[in-house]
Design brief:
By secondary structure, the protein is of the alpha+beta class. It has three domains: 129 residues, Beta-Lactamase; 81 residues, Signal transduction histidine kinase, dimerisation/phosphotransfer (DHp) domain (Helix Hairpins); 143 residues, Histidine kinase-like ATPase, C-terminal domain (Heat Shock Protein 90, 2-Layer Sandwich), CATH 3.30.565. The chain is 46% helix and 17% strand. The protein has eight helices and twelve strands. The strands form three sheets. The chain has a five-stranded antiparallel β-sheet with strand order 2-1-5-4-3.
Length: 485
C-alpha cells in the first residue's frame, strides 16, 4: 500500500492534534461556562430568599403577602411548617408549595407551633443545611421565559435554581422561603457556545489542514529540487553538478550543503580512482614491455638473453603489483589488527635485515613503548621510509623512536640529502608523484611508497609528515598513539 506524501501526513497530523485540542478546550469552556452561570443563578436565588426571609423576620404572619420580595416576576414563596403558603410572588399566586426539600425548624415547646418538620417529600433523604439548600426545579414558562400556569400562555418548561432559606416571622412562626432564579440564560449561553463550536470547528480544521499543507509544500519545495537534481546527476553520471542550495539557514539548506559536500567527495574519489588506474596502467606498461622485449629477443637469439634484466623487471613488476594490492585494500577500508607492537623492537629487527643498503643506517635513541596495530603494515611503513631515505641520502640515514607528550610515540627517519622543498611536502604523499622527473624509474620507484606509508599511518590513527632535518636533508616523522595512552 502506497503511503501518503509528507505534506498530506503533516496536514492530517496537524488537523488531528488541533481537533483534539479544540474538543478538549471546548468541553472545558462549556463546563466552566455552565458552572459559572449556574453558580450565578444559585447566588441570585439565595440572595432573593435571604432578603425575603429577612423581611419576614420583621413582619407578622398575617402581613407576609405584602412583603416587597413577593412583588417581582421570579418565583418566590413563603411556606410555614405545616406546608401552608403564607405568601407568593405573582407567578405562583394561588399555587401550593412549589418545593418541599428544606427542613423547617420545629417551634419551641409551648409556642403553639406545629410539630411537623416539613420533611422532604421527594424521599431523597438529603440532610438539609440549616442555612440554605439548593435544587434545580422545572417550571412552565411563557414565550418570554416567565413562570406561568395559564394553559393558554404555556409554551414549555424551564429549569430554575431554587434556594430554600429558613426564618421566623416577627411573631415567632417558623417559615421557609423558596426563591427561584431562571437557568434559561445559562442554557441559552451553553447552547450558543456549543453550536458555535460545532459549526466553527470543521471550518477551523479545514483552515488548519489547508494552511499546514501549503506551508509544508512550500517548505519541501527545495527538497523536491534536490531530489530532481540528484535524479538528473544519477542519470547523467556527471558528478560535477551540484544541487541547489536554499538561501534560508534551515535544515533543508544544511541538507543541500551536505549533499553537495558528498557529491564533491564522491567526485574527488572517482577522479582519484581514474587517475590511479591511469597511473597504474602507465607504470605497469614499462616493466611489462621491457620484459616482453627481452623474452622476444631471447626467443630469436637465445645467446642474447639478459637474465638479470628479466629478473629485475619481474621483481619490479611484482613489487608494483604488491603496492597496488595494498593500496586497494586500504582504499576498501581495511582496518589494522589491534595487536601491541613495540616500535623500538620493530626498528631493530627491520634494520638488521637491511645489510645491503648503500648507506649505513644509524640508530639513535629508541624509547620503549608500544602501539596498537599491524606489525606487518608498520614494518612496511618503516621500509618505505628507509627506501626513500636511501635513494636521497648523501652518506648516512638515521632512525630514532622517542616518546612525546600525551603518550604519543614518534618514529623519525632522516637523511643528509637535498631535502624536500616546503611547498612540496604534502604533494609527495600523493600517489605516483616523483619530484625529480629526470630520475629513471629504476632509481626513483613508482611513487607509491610515501602514499602507502601515509595511508597506513592514518589507518592506525596517526600521522606522517615531512619536516626540517638538522642534517639538512629530509626528515619523515610517523606519530602514533601509544597503546597505554
Amino acid at each position: 500500500m502506497r503511503r501518503a506524501s509528507v505534506r498530506v501526513r503533516a496536514a492530517l497530523g496537524a488537523t488531528v492534534v488541533v481537533a483534539l485540542a479544540l474538543v478538549a478546550a471546548g468541553f472545558f469552556v462549556v463546563a466552566t461556562l455552565r458552572d459559572g452561570l449556574a453558580g450565578t443563578a444559585r447566588l441570585g436565588a439565595e440572595n432573593t430568599a435571604r432578603s425575603t426571609a429577612a423581611q419576614a423576620g420583621h413582619t407578622a404572619r398575617g402581613a407576609i403577602p405584602d412583603l416587597d420580595g413577593l412583588d417581582g416576576d421570579e418565583p418566590v414563596q413563603v411556606v410555614d411548617a405545616s406546608g401552608r403558603v403564607l405568601g407568593a410572588s405573582d407567578p405562583l399566586e394561588g399555587r401550593g408549595p412549589v418545593a418541599d426539600f428544606a427542613r423547617v425548624d420545629k417551634p419551641d415547646e409551648g409556642d403553639g407551633g406545629s410539630d411537623d418538620d416539613g420533611g422532604d417529600d421527594d424521599g431523597d433523604g438529603v440532610e438539609v443545611d440549616s442555612d440554605s439548600e439548593h435544587k434545580t426545579l422545572s417550571f412552565p414558562v411563557d414565550d418570554d421565559g416567565d413562570v406561568t400556569y395559564d394553559k393558554d400562555d404555556i409554551v414549555g418548561s424551564q429549569d430554575f435554581s431554587v434556594a430554600a432559606v429558613q426564618g421566623r416571622t416577627r411573631d415567632g412562626t417558623p417559615v421557609t422561603v423558596y426563591a427561584g432564579a431562571s437557568l434559561g440564560a445559562q442554557q441559552e449561553a451553553v447552547s450558543t457556545v456549543t453550536r458555535s463550536m460545532l459549526f466553527g470547528l470543521p471550518v477551523l480544521l479545514v483552515v488548519v489542514g489547508g494552511v499546514t499543507w501549503l506551508v509544508t509544500r512550500r517548505a519541501l519545495r527545495p527538497v523536491e529540487g534536490i531530489r530532481q537534481e540528484m535524479s538528473a546527476i544519477t542519470a547523467s553520471t556527471d558528478l560535477s553538478r551540484r544541487v541547489p542550495e536554499p538561501e534560508a539557514r534551515d535544515e533543508v539548506a544544511r541538507l543541500a550543503r551536505t549533499t553537495n559536500e558528498t557529491l564533491a567527495a564522491l567526485q574527488a574519489s572517482v577522479e582519484r580512482q581514474r587517475r590511479f588506474v591511469a597511473d597504474a596502467s602507465h607504470e605497469l606498461r614499462s616493466p611489462i614491455a621491457s620484459l616482453r622485449t627481452q623474452l622476444e629477443v631471447a626467443a630469436a637469439h637465445p645467446e642474447l638473453l639478459d637474465v638479470d634484466g628479466a629478473v629485475e623487471d619481474t621483481v619490479r613488476l611484482q613489487a608494483l603489483a604488491a603496492d597496488l594490492l595494498l593500496l586497494a585494500r586500504l582504499d576498501a577500508g581495511e582496518r589494522p589488527a589491534g595487536k601491541r607492537v613495540s616500535l623500538a623492537e620493530l626498528v631493530r629487527e627491520h634494520v638488521a635485515q637491511r645489510a645491503g643498503d648503500p648507506h649505513p643506517v644509524r640508530l639513535l635513541a629508541l624509547d620503549d613503548g608500544e602501539v596498537l596495530g599491524s606489525a606487518g603494515q608498520l614494518a612496511r611503513v618503516l621500509g618505505n621510509l628507509l627506501d626513500n631515505a636511501q635513494r636521497h641520502a648523501a652518506s648516512r640515514v638515521t632512525v630514532r623512536v622517542r616518546r612525546e607528550g600525551g603518550g604519543t610515540l614518534a618514529l623519525a627517519v632522516e637523511d643528509d640529502g637535498a631535502g624536500v622543498p616546503e611547498d612540496e611536502r604534502e604533494r609527495i604523499f600523493e600517489r605516483f608523484v616523483r619530484l625529480d622527473d629526470a630520475r629513471s624509474r629504476d632509481e626513483g620507484g613508482a611513487g607509491l611508497g610515501l602514499a602507502i606509508a601515509r595511508d597506513v599511518a592514518e589507518r592506525h590513527g596517526g600521522t606522517l609528515r615531512a619536516e626540517d632535518s638538522e642534517a639538512g636533508g629530509a626528515r619523515f616523522v610517523l606519530r602514533l598513539p601509544g597503546a597505554d595512552g
